[in-house]
Amino acid sequence: MGDAARHELDRLDRWLRGGSVCLVLATVIVLAVRLLFPASGARPRPVPAAEAAAPAASLPAGIAAVESSYAYGGDTPERAFDGVIQYAPGGQHSRWACWGSGHPEDWIAWRLMPARTLARIDVYFFADDKGTTPPSSVRVEYRDAGEWRPVDGLTSEPERPIAAAVNVLRFAPVTTSELRLLVVHQPGSSSAISEIALPE
Ligand SMILES: [Ca+2]
To answer: Are residues 28 and 80 in the same domain?
Structure first.
């Protein structure tokens, strides 16, 4: 092999060694970038503890839908019909809450499927030391030909709404497919309902 050929082989060898070093360096850089900045969507979104502790509420048989004038965060109106009465703060948040609504009065409505005759509902109010109290008063209305009308002869036991106990609301029997409970908030606070039960 002549000097010229040997010289060319040495150049080729140096070039290949340099390329290998560059390739290794590039691989290391790519791996480091992937570790430091994982692609968005590459991993499942972490589930906050509170959300994990509050599975979606399922409605009981006979109730087709629930809605409300307002709901605070995950304290949706469906949670007043999930079969769980919970008075302790935190936990599953098994309640409908109006905190932050800014309304003097809010309502929760539920659609019955099929329509039925009711003369009583049992309401379990939730209260805490953070601005949630039982309402100052309540009203019950039913849907009649598209219009909300007050039930007749509404009584409450106890007379004033209380928290952490059952409030039995009785009224003249009404056959309807939609009812709603209206809560007048105490001044400077808001109302929350852990559960509404519809006794037979
Ligand atoms: Ca509940």
So the answer is: no
Mind listing the pLDDT tens digit for each residue in 152-199?
Answer: 999 999 999 999 999 999 999 999 999 999 999 999 999 999 999 999
Distance 74 CA to ligand 1 centre (A): 12
Name the domain count of the chain. Answer: 2
Q: Which helix (H) or strand (E) holds 147?
A: strand 147-150
Distance (Å) from CA 2 to ligand 1 centroid: 92
pLDDT band at 52 (very low <50, low <70, confident <90, very high): very low
CATH number at residue 61: 2.60.120.260
Determine if the pTM surpasses 0.85: no
CA separation for the pair 82, 196 (Å, rounded)? 9
Q: Could you tell me the distance, in angstroms and rounded to a whole number, from the CA of residue 152 to the centre of ligand 1?
A: 27
29 shares its domain with 118:
no
What residues have a C-beta under 5 A from ligand 1, the ion? 79, 82, 84, 94, 194-195
| 98 CA from centroid of ligand 1 (Å) | 14
Alpha-carbon distance of 5 to 9, in angstroms, equals 6
Residues 6 or more apart whose CB falls under 8 angstroms from that of 188 comprise: 131
Instruction: Give 3-state DSSP helix, strand, coil % of the chain, rounded to 5.
Output: 20, 35, 40
| Residue pLDDT, tens place only, 21-39 | 545 445 555 445 454 444 4
Same domain assignment for residues 12 and 110: no
Residue 85 C-alpha to ligand 1 middle, in angstroms? 5
Residue 87 structural domain: 49-197
